[in-house]
Structures are given as C-alpha cells and as structure tokens.
Amino acid sequence: TDVQRSLVLVKPDGVRRGLSGEILRRIEAKGYTLAAVELRSATPEILAAHYAEHEGKPFYGPLVEFMLSGPVLAVVIEGQRCIEGFRSLAGATDPTVAAPGTIRGDLGRDWGLAVQQNLVHGSDSEESAAREIGIWFPAL
Ligand code: DAT
Ligand code: MG
C-alpha cells in the first residue's frame, strides 16, 4: 500500500471567510482521514521554515505577511496517495485557472494582490510532507 500523510493548511483567507468546514468536508468526502487538526497562529519562525524554498522570490514577503494576517487551520491528513490526491483537490495555484470542482477553482479568485490568496496549502512530495509535518506538529 501507499498510505501517506500530508500537511494541509487552511490559510488565513479560508479561515476568515468561514471555509474551514467546507474544506475539511471535501477532504473527508474524498475518504482521507484527519490525523491532526489545530487552529493556530503562524509565527515568522514557522513560516521561514515552511516556505524556505520560496525565500528570495518576489512574492515571499507578501506571502509571509499574508500568512501572519490571521489564524490558520493546520491539518494532517492521511490516506492512500493523499499527497497527490490533496493537490488534485486543491487545484492550480492561481485560482483563476484552477479547474472547477477544485477548492481553489470553486471557492477562490484572484484578488489582484502581490500574493495569491488561494485558501489552502498542501505538501507537494513525500519529502515535503515529512518536513512540513515536523515543522507544524513536531510531536506527531
Ligand atoms: P502551491 O501553494 O500551489 O504549492 P507554490 O508552492 O509554488 O504554490 O507557492 C506557494 C504560495 O505562494 C502559493 O500558494 C501562492 C504564492 N505564490 C506562488 N507563486 C506566486 C506568484 N507567481 N504570484 C503570487 N503569489 C504566488
Ligand atoms: Mg507549494
């Protein structure tokens, strides 16, 4: 089998807009289970580790500022091929072109800001998932 864990974040825009439940509903409807769910505030330290791959890019500063603008729902999901599966549920990074049926395609839009406020984060590989779960849930 190929049961995986992935780190999902409902970003501050999703929490603010009251979409946490809708996003968790889609995850559970897909058949993935919730191994951890915690509403919390990110910190500059956590975000520096989480987004290390993007340091130096033009959207990095706005991204960190956005992620500090309100609480996030940090979630660990579990299921067969759930890393790729959640990326598919989330849709493309840019909500304008994210396919209908996806979280970003159905619920997100481009707000014309320096950073895409696209509702969710999902780990993009097994290595990223292990690293990110270690950052957000060191006890797991
Ligand atoms: P994803 O969240 O789809 O994995 P990513 O890891 O490439 O995308 O980027 C992390 C976040 O940074 C993304 O969710 C939104 C923001 N971002 C990425 N590329 C961007 C761009 N070209 N313009 C504005 N924001 C961007
Ligand atoms: Mg990414």
TrEMBL record:
Subcellular location field: Cytoplasm
Protein name: Nucleoside diphosphate kinase
Quaternary data: Homotetramer.
EC nos: 2.7.4.6
Listed GO MF terms: nucleoside diphosphate kinase activity
Organism: Nocardioides baculatus
Names of required cofactors: Mg(2+)
SMART domains (UniProt xref): NDK
